[in-house]
């Protein structure tokens, strides 16, 4: 019960009974980027449309993105037309979305979603993620979207390193953008430009290498990796699919809560072991004495009360746990 109370104060909920044991074994923590280490509030910073129809294309894209749960969709919310009719919406995991807006076929996503992307639209800008827009198989506009890094992300990575855990950034974004974020928050191991199924495969490869992996994500693209990880962790702002797949949901968007949960669970396990050791030691001594009559009933009752008092007192040490995410 004491751990449940501390878990609540650390803003975490878990559905798997073996959560404490899982965190004890974890040696690698893998983070998604968008919405996990970044704020999940992307904005459009640059639009390239050779045919000068950017407003029209952005309006169509905004209306289509209103059906998407991906964090990138929030960057287009300001362009959405609430009266637009959206049909045939389809999500292509790791690539983008397609659908029909007011009778016009529309595609919004990565280069791989299109059959042709004019070279005039392709630019190299590590300040943001490039998204292409098009009415059909040919891209007509390029949009750069950027998302601010959470101010607590660097502290979260530092805390995990203090726990002697390996940290990996696993992202579907471009190598340039992922590496820029990783450098800012001091993550050395970066795996970028991966599809959802490839995220799952990378987690499986780590496990095959003997690593015990915790995966932290928030989007529908993270669900395959969350499902296969030894410990799946979803953010509060995550999609329903991510939260339902994960073993643990942190009830905050602060990534420091990941380190809090692992540290608290490890401390809880240490307290449990001490309590069990004391209980077994007490019974190993008291029972033989009671059997041979050397321990009077009154003395046995006092000893039992003292044992319970020591166990409760030891458990209260968990109250001294200091959560980074609530400071």
Provide mean pLDDT, rounded: 87
- CATH superfamily heading of the largest domain: HAD superfamily/HAD-like
Shape: elongated
Gyration radius from CA atoms, angstroms:
26 Å
What is the CA-CA span between the terminal residues? 23 Å
Structural class determined from secondary elements: alpha/beta
Listing every helix as H and every strand as E from the N terminus to the C terminus, the arrangement reads HEHEEHEEEEEHEHEHEHEHEHH
Largest sheet: 7 strands, mixed
* Helix content estimate: 25-40%
What is the CATH topology classification name of the largest domain? Rossmann fold
> How many β-strand runs?
13
The strands making up the biggest β-sheet line up spatially as: 1-13-12-11-2-9-10
Strand percentage lies at 15-25%
Give the CATH class of the largest domain.
Alpha Beta
CATH architecture of the largest domain: 3-Layer(aba) Sandwich
Number of discrete helical segments: 10
Low-confidence stretches: 1-10
Structure in words:
It is elongated and about 95 Å long. It has ten helices and 13 strands. By secondary structure, the protein is of the alpha/beta class. Helix 4 (153-162) packs parallel to helix 9 and helix 9 (256-291) runs antiparallel to helix 10 (297-315). It folds into three domains: 2-39 and 149-261, 3-Layer(aba) Sandwich (Rossmann fold); 43-146, Calcium-transporting ATPase, cytoplasmic domain N, CATH 3.40.1110; 269-320. The strands form two sheets. The protein has a seven-stranded mixed β-sheet, with helices on both faces.
